[in-house]
Amino acid sequence: MWALNCNLDKLIILSSFLLVFILCIFLMQEESLISTDEEGNILPNFLQSEANATELAEKIRILCLVMTHPNNHKTKAYQVYKTWGRRCNYVEFLTTEADPEIPTIVSPTKEDYNQIWGKTKFGFKTAYEKYYDKVDWVMKADDDTYVIVENLRYLLSSFNHSDPIWFGCEFKVIVKDGYMSGGAGYVLSKEALRRFNEISLPNATLCEQNDGGSEDVNMGNCLKSVGVVSTDSRDNFGRFRFLPFTPGNHIGQ
CB 3.0 to 4.6 Å from 244: which of 36, 127, 184, 215, for a disulfide? Predict the structure, then answer.
């Protein structure tokens, strides 16, 4: 009888300990889900997420250069401007004609697919002259690209814009050590932008001077020649963040 009572007492003590332990874990999780403002007022989670995004927008300043052409101003370009383009600190559309409904950088090159490299050079040159002191990163994208700018800022927040680096979907062909796909978009740090404009672009031995040729390949060569380093942008699971093809090509990868 004594042994039965002893075992029962031990069971009650053990059960009480487990109950307290589980309660502590629950309370710790609850506390981690609660956010407060500077005055200690509890904020809903969605407000805290918005606050985090706003804070990153102030710290991670991005200029978005969107490649387009006059026939797409009222359609693709305008939709970019009204959606994800508004989340950039600054957005400019690289084109050959001005448009009062979207902010444009008007390139003197011909409106021809084979002249995209010329438009790209002019766009990054203008970005350097107009925005160098205003932004930390410059992204080039096409008007059929969709960018989740908050996620891009989260990625960039782990890196220093003073380093000569760039991000994108790297193709390991043609260019020694690879280049970033133009279709997926790519991002240059402030230092990469400076080196491209001050050192590479004016030098015919370092950077293609003609307006023709593959834009992304030429950009890769120009940046590699001045020590700009390709940086791995994959997430913790090894998944790519810059996607060069249509969604159907990437689903399941």
Answer: 184
**DSSP secondary structure of 101-135:** TS-EEE-SS-S-GGGHHHHHHHHHHHHHHHHTTT-
Name all contacts of 80-89 with Cβ < 8 Å and 24+ positions apart. Answer: 80/143, 80/145, 83/146, 84/146, 84/147, 84/148, 84/149, 87/57, 87/149, 87/150, 88/62, 88/63, 88/64, 88/139, 88/149, 89/57, 89/61, 89/62, 89/63, 89/134, 89/135
Please indicate, yes or no, whether the overall pTM of this predicted structure exceeds 0.90.
no
The amino acid present at 16, given as its one-letter code, is: S
Distance, CA of 207 to CA of 195 (rounded, Å): 11
Taking only the tens place, the pLDDT of each residue in 196-248 is 999 999 999 999 999 888 888 999 999 999 999 999 888 888 888 887 767 76
Cβ proximity of 76 and 143 under 8 Å: yes
Q: What are phi and psi of 98, to 5 degrees?
A: -70, 155
